[in-house]
Amino acid sequence: MGISRSLKGRQPKFLAGFIIICYSVLMSVPWLPRGLSSGLDPSYSVMLYKAFAANIQFGKDFVYTYGPYGMLQFDRYVPETYAALIIGRAFIGLTIGVGLCLITTFCWNQNKWSLLFLLPIIVFFPNLGVHRDSFHIYATLLPLLLYFYVDEWYADKSVASQNSKLPYLISLLFVVAGVALISLIKQTFLVLGTAVVVLITFDQIFRKRQPPVVLITYITSLLGFWLLADQKITNIGAYVSNNAQITKGFSETMGIPGYLDEIVVYLIVASVIFVAVSAATWQPRNVYHLLPLLGLLLALFLVFKSSFTRHDFHALQASESIIPLSSLCSAILFPRLSQFHVRVPFLLWKVPLLLLLWILVIVNAQLISSRYSQAIYLTNTQFNVQFLPNRYPQAMYRDRYIGGIEGIARTITHAIKLTAGKTAPQIIYKESAKQIKAANPLPEIKGTTDLYAYDLSVLLAYDLPYKPRPVIQSFSAYTSELAELNARSLQAQDAPDTILFDTRTIDGRLPSSDDGRSWPELWTHYDITDASGSFLVLERKAKPETYQLTPQFEETIEVGEWVDLEALSGSAPVWMNVEIAPTLGGKTITTLLRRPQLYIEVELANGSVNRYRVFGDVMKAGQLLSPLVLEQEDFAYLASTNWQQSLAFSAVTRMRLVADKAAALAYSPTYSLKLSQLDFPRQNLTNIPGWEPIERFMTLRGGRVMPPVENKPAVVSGPEGKKVFLTHATTKLALPLPANAKRLSISYGILNEAWQKAQAEGTTGQDGVEFRILARSANDRESTDSTEAVVTENVLFSQWLDPHVNEDDRGKKRVTLAIENAENTEIVLETLPGPNENNSWDWSYWTELDIQ
Prior knowledge:
This protein is α+β, with helices and mostly antiparallel strands. The protein is 43% helix and 18% strand. It contains 28 helices and 24 strands. The strands form 6 sheets. The protein has a 5-stranded antiparallel sheet, with no helix packed on it.
């Protein structure tokens, strides 16, 4: 009878535990995974799936911030790995569910009101990239909270008769196994997971005098999961050391500034959390109570770095991580935290510490969410682009589900549909692959393949045999060591047979800062065989050639001082090696947050001055300086036999390193500059597919921009994904004509995005663009004092397009003109604002120039 009553009394607890575990698994599994998509982030996420399926060795052949189970961070459908994705995510959900069960039971028996603080956890099971960072952070902290704050209750002799310690210990070790799997997802989680286990082990050995079962479980699970992913034990050292290089370079190369008030509010709320937990757990003359505080402090610091080093939408982690951490600490420590009150300035009464903490948590969440998402935490399901700062690409924020009450219903609906066979992820995958192929046409590709700079989804869409360089995306070769690692891989016997090449970069970088150390290896180990598609196609030479660097200049230069290159540029490409040391202050700032930005300014032969972001450690390995290579066409021309004439406009005549005010304190005032002449065998590209359009486009690129100009011309993606030369009104572009020129044809128009975005934002007043083509000639005229040039301009063509109003004015247009007396004549391509002189949304372009 007594046993029967005891079991009956436990049934609600068992049922609640069962529901929590099932819910955790349900919300962790990606029931409606996404297909492929182009871009930087989608590319590395899908390649984590490809690497897992192909058993590529992480640390040796695949160096990134993610580990062999990095695919579990995302929700992509890749046929070979979908089953592994579901199993892995379900296992993590199961371990988190078990941990939450232990905490729920503890709270139920300590103080039932504390369970209210666990409610936010229910809606915190995000399924997408950066949001899972927050999810995995609090999951990794579960063993720390269980061991230091819950363990004593299960071990108490007064409850030992009703609650056996063995099931609790098994459950704790099971949660630790889940942390081991999470640790192999990303470097951040490995650091935090290892720290948590070390802190627990220290207490087990020195205070409790117990065997280090948590450490043994963690290490055994790590090795087990490592081997399960077909990773070699001998690669563990390379995995740790090379990933340390990634971590080392991230704060310098990936940092971008953001809103200061977000940082201040986060630091305040993080400080209050730390002080509250410290006050609630303070034990005089007991140093062991400091161990969990160290783990909490590390977690708060990692969240700070993850949120504000690259201070864009990553700032969401500062709210998404704080909420579950606050929930767990408030629930577990509620009996002690509820006793504390704080006297707030300007108030006549004391405020409960818990109330103050949660007010700050909500303020922090609202501040950040109002800038990057639709609403506050509990109802947030999608980003709303109208709140975004102008500097952030709005496309990055669309359709990013991060949880919320509505998200729970959506997840359950998707789970039912998938299990009932009403959704087919494989169809989504095939359709997305078809779209990528349509946007990125390629010729037939031979053998193993890699892609520069970062859009790796193209390889998966075409199902090409992937042979990655160690650092899989060029922008992530953060240090000179990583840049050298990628360059050496091109010299190996098993280097890719084919490389698809593009120069796209991020954050306004000098393109040669991204894997630029590998460019000489590409020019000497590969031939350019096709330029007709979205990428240059490079095929491996049967017999690799060599390049030579001949030193021409080496001096110590002051930051901000111009260096004249006219004597060097033109005869051969100029290779640059820079050594600039960070100051102690710079190193400290880098450790705490991010390295201030460093730039290179270059003056070109055509008179333009441009500024690009560069990185001290990367420049140590060396990169191309002159001619300035911005597009893949420039890269191809530099490999051709007639590079000097075609790239004359982009020869660098002067350069200097410059630093903003904050950066000036972070770097040494002088740096070592070494300039060398780069020589390598050239290739005749005249007959390769796609070369003729490149020659025409380069004629446009080489035009002289006539002052004054408000917006610098730029190469952008135009109709059908093809490149066009953006010349925002008002711009004049002068092109010399061959003496025997008889006819000119050129395409022009206004980018569709201009009128589409103007309509979407409801802006008015746009009046279109006037496109004009002028023949400009200069004839000598003698006067009494001197001979002067008389410049005449004849308008050969003029058309006003206003796609904001007239549908017929949308899309690409083309004009063909007869040319007379081309000698001593240049063509001027001019774009002017419409009749109202309003040049907003005047995204006008020229392309497809043909002179016969």
